[in-house]
Specification:
With 423 residues, the chain is an alpha+beta fold. Helices cover 64% and strands 7% of the residues. The protein folds into two domains: 5-222, Rhopdopsin 7-helix transmembrane proteins (Up-down Bundle), CATH 1.20.1070; 257-411, Alpha-Beta Plaits. The model is unreliable at 417-423 (pLDDT under 50). The structure holds guanosine-5'-triphosphate (GTP).
């Protein structure tokens, strides 16, 4: 198969020009180094267009400008690599090659051997500089794209040295740019391979870095999500305990007055909707002032806690509420209980407190006892009916229990239907 040099040069032009597009089309904001490499490929295209026009345009263009463009191509590749690796480029390598070729080549138009040796020395040094910076940064560079680039620049260095060797051997006619001979074919075939390695290496390097950045970012995001989840769990737990605290009596652990008011109102509305009775027990420790006076305030607190424990253990249904109504007074709201069921519960509580046999020498019963008033009402459909009516009735029953000698349960005697809030 015949391979002629002008075709190889055209192939280099087509490849360089074609590579400019994909390199330039990648999002440049994320990869500014690609802009530099796109310019490098553009400069390479220009250089080879001018080489192909050797003899048809002035030597200033096809020799001087073409070689300046080659030097500029390598400068731009070098700058792109420095940018990619976030390294400060050498000022000397960024400017000197172009100046040297641009200043010396017009003087060497008739001196091919010197021109080739000088030009190829500059290109070899530039390509080698790219290899060196890639090798130096290989540890911190992710992926394998860098090795393709290293291989490409090593080939470019070797081909320049090969041409210097050919020039030094005196085979000048072998180096004329458009002539087809083994040295020329080897040179440009190797440069085509190098160009392929540049293109794939650049694409791979940028892709690999983007992938690793993405993985790092998604890792960070996951970590932040986990932290956020932890914070939200803690916040939820704190909110729960705050809510719990806001409805709990700190001494007895039962519901506090606020909670009692809320539950009573809710149950009142539920009973109204269901047309069912709502029952209430008001429980008061007997002669508690005397207990405090006799045993001290601390013992009084302990007594309150013990009575609270009896209440808590006496409740059977999940929705039943026991609350501290105030001072030494407690309230129980049993769900779905009628007057009789509430009375039975009250009596069980009354007996259980007495059964604790907590000594109370100043009580007529000789032990801590409670009096309980029980009431139950079917809330009327009238919007003005209020749960306070139920409280008043239970309170009146409690008063009678106290009057009747304490340590007993009294039940509301009025008909169990509330019409309006009584006066
Ligand atoms: N230790 C203690 N005492 C309390 C607490 N809250 C209220 N008391 C006391 O409970 C007593 C209530 O006394 P009274 O309202 O006179 O009623 P009582 O002595 O129980 O008499 P009866 O109810 O008629 O049997 C007062 O001495 C209050 O100081 C508390 O949290 N701890």
């Amino acid at each position: 198969m015949d391979v002629n040099v002008p075709s190889l040069l055209v192939a280099i032009i087509v490849m360089s020009a074609t590579l400019v597009l994909p390199v330039a089309l990648v999002p440049l904001r994320q990869h500014p180094e690609l802009r530099t490499w796109a310019w490098a490929l553009g400069a390479n295209t220009l250089a080879y267009v001018l080489f192909v026009l050797r003899g048809q345009v002035s030597d200033l263009l096809s020799v001087v400008l073409a070689n300046v463009a080659v030097a500029q191509t390598l400068v731009l590749f070098y700058l792109g690599i420095c940018r990619f690796q976030q390294r400060e480029p050498s000022r000397w390598l960024s400017v000197a090659p172009v100046l040297l070729v641009g200043a010396s080549f017009p003087l060497l138009l008739d001196k091919l051997p010197l021109r080739v040796m000088l030009g190829c020395s500059v290109y070899a040094a530039q390509s080698l500089a790219c290899v060196v910076i890639l090798v130096r940064c290989r540890e911190q560079t992710i992926g394998r794209g860098q090795y393709l680039l290293m291989a490409g620049f090593t080939l470019a260095t070797l081909v320049s040295l090969f041409r210097i060797g050919a020039a030094a051997s005196g085979y000048m006619e072998l180096l004329s740019i458009l002539l087809t001979n083994p040295v020329q074919v080897t040179t440009f075939l190797v440069l085509i391979v190098a160009l392929i390695l540049f293109g794939t290496g650049l694409a791979l390097m940028v892709h690999e870095r983007s992938e690793s950045q993405l993985a790092r970012q998604s890792g960070l995001l996951e970590q932040q999500n986990r932290l956020l989840q932890q914070y939200s769990n803690r916040l939820e737990a704190a909110n729960l305990s705050l809510t719990e605290l806001s409805i709990t009596d700190s001494l007895t652990g039962l519901g506090n007055r606020r909670h009692f008011d809320e539950v009573l109102r809710t149950e009142w509305e539920r009973a109204r909707r269901g047309g069912k009775p709502l029952a209430l027990l008001l429980i008061d420790i007997d002669c508690f002032k005397d207990y405090n006076d006799c045993y001290g305030h601390q013992a009084g607190d302990d007594c309150l806690m013990k009575v609270a424990t009896v209440l808590r253990t006496s409740l059977r249904r999940a929705g039943d509420l026991a609350a501290r109504y105030g001072g030494e007074e407690f309230a129980v709201v049993p769900v779905d209980a009628d007057l009789e069921q509430a009375r039975q519960l009250a009596q069980a509580i009354c007996r259980a407190v007495a059964a604790q046999a907590l000594a109370h020498v100043r009580s007529p019963h000789g032990r801590v006892t409670v009096s309980i008033g029980v009431a139950a009402l079917v809330p009327s459909l009238d919007a003005q009916s209020e749960p306070e009516a139920l409280i008043r009735r239970a309170d009146a029953a409690l008063y009678r229990a106290k009057e009747g000698g304490r340590n007993k349960v009294e039940v509301d005697r009025l008909p169990a239907r509330c019409v309006n809030a009584p006066s």
